[in-house]
Amino acid sequence: MIPAQFDYAAPETLEDAIRVLSEGGPEAKLLAGGHSLLPLMKLRLATPSLLVDLRKVPGLHGVHRDNGTWRIGALTPHAELEHTAELGLVARAAGTIADPQVRNRGTIGGSLAHGDPASDLPAVMLVTEASVTLRGPDGQRTVAATELFRDYMETAVGTAEVLTEVRLGAMDAWGFGYQKFNRRSEDWAMVAVSALVKQTGDVCEDVRIGLTNMGSVPLRAHAVEEALRGQAISAESIAQAAEHADEGTDPPADLNASSEYKRHLARVLCRRALAEAAGLK
Amino acid sequence: MSAVAEAPYVGREMRRKEDPRMITGRGRYIDDIAVPGTLWIAIVRSTEAHARIISIDKSAATGRNDVVAVLTGEDLAGDFAAPMAMVWSPPGVEIKTPEYWPVARGEVKHVGDPVAVVVGRDRYSVIDAAEHVVVEYEPKPVVVDPEKALEDGSPLVWEQFGTNRTHEWKVSGGDIDAALADADVVIEQRMVNHRTAGGAIETRGVLADPNGDKITLHSSTQIPHILRFVLSLLLGIDEDNLRVVAPDVGGGFGSKLQVYPEEVIAVALAKRLNRPVKWIETRSEAMMATHHGRDQIDYITLAANSDGTLTGCRARVVADLGAYQLLLTPFIPELGFPVMGGCYKIPAIDLTFEGVFTNKFCTDAIRGAGRPEATYWIELMMDKLADKLGMDPLELRRKNFIRKEEFPFTTALGITYDSGDYEGTLDRLLERLDLEAFRREQEELRARGIYRGVGFSTYVEVCGLAPSRAVGPQGVGLQAAFWESAMVRVHPSGSATVFTGASPHGQGHDTSFAQIAADRLGIDPQRIQVIHGDTDQGPWGWGTYGSRTISVGGEAVARAAIRVQDKAKEICAALLEAAPEDIELVDGKYRVRGSPDKFKTMAEISGAAHIPPQELPTDIEPGLEATAMYDPENFVFPFGAHACVVDVDAETGKVSVVRYIAVDDCGPPINPMLIDGQVHGGITHAIGQALYEQVVYDDEGQLVTGTFVDYAMPTAAELPSFETDRTVTPSPVNSLGVKGVGEAGTIAATPAVTAAVLDALAPLGVAWIDMPLTPRRVWEAISEAQNGGAQA
Amino acid sequence: MSTTVAVRLNVNGAVHELEVEPRLLLVHALRDHLGLTGTHVGCDTSNCGACTIHLDGKAVKSCTVLAVQADGVPITTIEGLAPEGGLHPVQEAFWNDHALQCGFCTPGMIMAATALLTENPNPTEQEVRHGLEGNLCRCTGYHNIVKAVLDAANVKSASLEQHPEVTA
User: Fold this and answer.
1) Does A2 touch chain B (CB under 8 A)?
2) pLDDT tens digits, one per residue of B273-285
3) N or C end of chain C, less CB within 10 A?
4) Chain A positions in Cβ-Cβ contact with residue B704 (cut-off 8 Å)
5) Cβ of A264 under 8 Å from any chain B Cβ?
6) pLDDT tens-digit readout, B486-505
7) Summary mean pLDDT of chain C
8) Buried residues in A38-59 as b, exposed as e (16+ CB within 10 A)
9) pLDDT, tens digit, for every residue of B713-740?
């Protein structure tokens, strides 16, 4: 299949991009790597009137570290994240996205702005407590990941705003685990669980759990975190905490999984991700 | 003396002659062919599973730039001489066959049914225009489940028949009632063999190119000659005015063994518009409008004595045929019947096949076609019986195997298996798989929570369609024959061309047929080109499918080549003033027996055949070519023993194939490398069915698995490397001794995979799971077994 | 709506200037406009990988890239992988190891494999399998494809010098 017709602009500055996007109205869309948008357009599930291609806009690419903060340009492809091992959980999760070709084109900014709850990076942004920088006609604002994902494929990014950068704390002191469950390795997650654990000796000083594809938006499993925080880390304590992984979730059934099965998977994957993060396996 | 060279090319691992163009991007597939002035076709397809068409508004599409025509079923009514063809007419059985027009007239019967055709100037604009054809439907009741379709009061796919049952076909041998009554043990199982897709990576496509009264149809097909014949009937065009060309074909797996509406539409439009027209199927269209396979529910009963001796088998098959009858739709489930008894001596067999209409697309042949289903029943029933009797499943198999010395063996159904050594392949398999060590490892792993299992499949396959007298009008009633042709032509300078009626799509005929001909002609196979897939070149042939090509088409090549060799010997004898019977072919030389320095090469002989340097005997015609049409006396019956080892994550239900061992016997190999390749692909196709793939329609008849996102064919990352081995038991049916191997892996592997999963989960009390063994299904089965005790 | 735009496609070392609809997919620009039909289309959803090419040296699916997005970026297709008349070690290995049957997935598979070996010259079997997870093959069961890629890895370092990719 092929996309429906659209107008196209490839502005050379961010300011121009914002202006063109703004003038294009609600049916105008930004084009980054295109690996979320173009597949929908080819099936005509999305029919934007205008595509504003960011490829010529400078300064939106790359992974940089400023002291304790990672700054990731929106146009940084997943493959670059995957190969930046220092990113820890982000690198691990990025390496599981689809397949190598997709990872070479798909970008972190595109993925986050698309807001698909089955995508790998949104929940990772929740647990790393990342924020995104949005630039629009009225200037720049920073939105925390917790505020970014509003509903199924609906984000806080305004129709005339460009997501330019992702910032997240360097989680150097944290262990991480990422457990993605899918039928084939190139598939989206049926359920995925990301875990970050900060330990002092055997004690879980802090813990964060993210859930992918367990609802219309990525989720934090706060009940698990509360159950484990301050506890001694052991296979038993992790297993007990992980039993809370699906609390408060209402995952929709789909071709591959019932709601009940997804909830079960969340508990199992949470235990495994925690064990991985805590270095138990 | 053998008619075959002493240092044969047959049996060698030869790199394929077709590969250089394909690895450099110079293959020529249907969409690679460009004819100036071509118009493009897009099909407007039904979004309803069952509906009356109230109206079709073409105006918005017709008015668009670049649109040449928008045509409905009514508009095209005069362009088709006859409805789509179905060719099975079994004696004494009526098969309900509705009129099926290439573009719907009045009603649609499945999602994807063609409703209108848009013709325009380029690939993109016709897709745009098709979206502007507005079709108003009045929905009708939909039936999707074949067993519900058989219930009283079910919605009817075709009201005029008053039922959704298309036909019932029975075959039996021996006294099944007595067998069941007298048996010590009788076991029963309902099995679902679900709907799958062919999944060729190249979708279908057609390019119809008119030139005066003659139309050339390029089509991604497995059957160019059949296609031309059927198109001539459906369109009222004489065959001499139709040429069908199969270019490089990007996979078929049975899905291109068909005469499709789009092929008929393309030729009709080329004729109507007098312009070349092209249609390339999208993947989304392929999922809804390229025929599916399998889709049957089987009720199997197996009876035995307490010592394990099989006494009888009964099967009732409910086959979901979809909304229409295509070429072989109702026959495909029955195609498995000759091997219903598997490798075993079963004195009484009783089979009933029922076809059912539903509001889905048609099923038809997909790799294996009826035989994977039959093999699935019998192999898994053998495991269940062993369990019931407390016997080792392999011991039970050995006890009932037809023994090597009992061939040819005629089964209760009157089918004569040609040759076999079932113990031999199983023994070879067990040389590679130390079962005792495996069982020890399995115990240890279980103690650590890892559920590993092994499953076996000792299969026999029937293939090599022909023989025409068994499957044609005189036999089971296909209105077709299945001989194959070859024409071997040696050129004046000594190279050769082989024309075959077979039509490959990955099998490597260019190479294997050249090897067969080379030995018999005394020519290097690199100097032999194989031509196929063009009805204007070479003799009529029946195409490539059903693992028939090497044992029927290859044998035809061998026979034609021997005829050429015989003539070459006569010419050589005349040139050397010897007797023809004294000429022998050794190392590419036609030489006089006992005088090795007196010889002629094929180049010299062929030169003389075309431009005689001296007077040749008057009974020798000029030229050097021969044609053979070969219709075998019997099928061939390849067989083998496969083992699959899986790990099941009992917490999530995910199954991983960790090891797969295949020992197959397809007679003497022509090119062992190609055999391994066929086995690898066949196994993977079956692993795909067993674990990953399913065509799913929802209750409304909407296709849920409409793309490769949801129709989950395995990638390299899901699979292990395979271990393959062979034994060699020649078939007495043909001079090559060969049997087909294209479907062997697919036929063998689904029961091996399922059995491995069931073996892994036995300690958890899981007794049965229907394919596909998806994580969800496995998890649910485990949960049920754990919570509700062992299943029935 | 949708006027055409100018695009410079730098393919296998040759620059082509085209006027195209912005929606034109790169794969169709290569096939229909430049006649480079070795790059195939097998699905609608970026799953099958038959359309894999190298864009700036990286494997990408050209069915999910607009031609305009490739403006000025070096592109290598299967036709340009080896110098005319020669074979890249991966092509050679595919031939030797019977890593293709119908051949339709083959160009994409080879382009994915060559990119994989560029990033990881000595992969394990599992790394090869995961490196090819974006390419579907229905014929081979992947067995011989994986073998060919591993075999090519073994000979590649020796012969790569003679088979540089043709890029601008």
Assistant:
1) yes
2) 999 999 999 999 9
3) N
4) 255
5) yes
6) 999 999 999 999 999 999 99
7) 92
8) bbbbbbeebebbbbbbbbebee
9) 999 999 999 999 999 999 999 999 999 9
* Inter-chain residue contact B776 with A256, CB threshold 8 Å: yes
Domain boundaries of chain B, sorted by first residue: 19-26+484-630, 33-140+202-250+256-289, 292-465+634-786
Of B709, B715, B776, the CB nearest to A258: B776
Mutate which of B652, B654, B695, B780 to test chain A, going by most A C-beta atoms within 10 A? B652
Q: Extract the tokens encoding A203.
A: 């004690």
| A185 to B692: CB separation less than 8 angstroms, yes or no | no
Q: Judge whether C114 is closer than 8 Å to chain B, CB to CB.
A: no
pLDDT interval class at B466 (50, 70, 90) = confident
Is residue A184 within 8 angstroms of chain B, CB to CB?
yes
What is the DSSP code string of A112-180? HHHT-TTSHHHHHHHHTT-EEEEEETTEEEEEEHHHHEEETTEES--TT-EEEEEEEE--TT-EEEEEE
Partner chains of C (3+ C-beta pairs under 8 Å) = A, B
Average pLDDT score over residue span C105-112: 98
Strands (E), A2-108: 7-9, 28-31, 50-53, 63-66, 69-73
Q: Where are the alpha helices (DSSP H) in B620-770?
A: 672-687, 744-761
DSSP secondary structure code for residue C164 in this structure: -
Mean pLDDT of chain B: 96
Q: Which residue type is seen at B728?
A: V
Scan residues 244-263 of B and list those with Cβ closer than 8 Å to C. 248-253
Q: Where are the beta strands (DSSP E) in B184-263?
A: 185-197, 205-211, 214-219, 242-245
Q: What is the domain partition of chain C in residue ranges?
A: 5-80, 89-162
pLDDT digit string, tens, across residues B22-44:
999 999 999 999 999 999 999 99
B505-541 pLDDT, tens per residue? 999 999 999 999 999 999 999 999 999 999 999 999 9
Chains contacting chain B through 3 or more C-beta pairs under 8 A: A, C
* CATH number among 1.10.3720.10, 3.40.190.10, 3.40.50.1240, 1.10.150.120, domain C89-162: 1.10.150.120
What are the phi and psi torsion angles at A139 (to 5°)? 110, -160
Interface confidence, given as ipTM, is 0.97
Residue pairs spanning B and C at CB distance below 8 A: 186
Rounded to an integer, what distance in angstroms lies between the CA atom of residue C163 and that of residue C152? Answer: 12
Residue range C144-149: average pLDDT?
98
* Interface residue A185 vs chain B (CB under 8 A): yes
The amino acid occupying position B314 is R
- What average pLDDT does range A152-176 have in this prediction? 96
Where in B256-399 does DSSP place strands (E)?
Answer: 277-280, 292-304, 310-322, 349-357
> Distance (Å, rounded) from C-alpha B334 to C-alpha B298?
12
Sorted by where each begins, the domain ranges of chain A are 7-53, 63-169, 176-277
User: Which residue of chain C comes nearest to B204, CA vs CA?
Assistant: C42
Mutate which of C101, C124, C127 to disrupt the B interface (most B C-beta within 10 Å)? C101
Mean pLDDT over A136-145 rounds to 97
Q: How far apart are the first and last CA of chain C?
A: 34
Among chain C residues, the shortest Cα distance to B284 is held by C44
Task: Say which amino acid occupies B753.
Answer: V
Q: Is B715 on the interface with A (CB under 8 A)?
A: yes
Q: Closest Cα of chain C to B281: distance in Å?
A: 10
State the alpha helices, DSSP H only, in B417-480: 422-432, 435-447, 468-471
pTM: 0.97
Please give the Cα distance from C26 to A177 (Å, whole number).
38
Q: Which CATH architecture has domain B292-465+634-786?
A: 2-Layer Sandwich (3.30)
The answer to whether A258 contacts chain B (CB < 8 Å) is yes
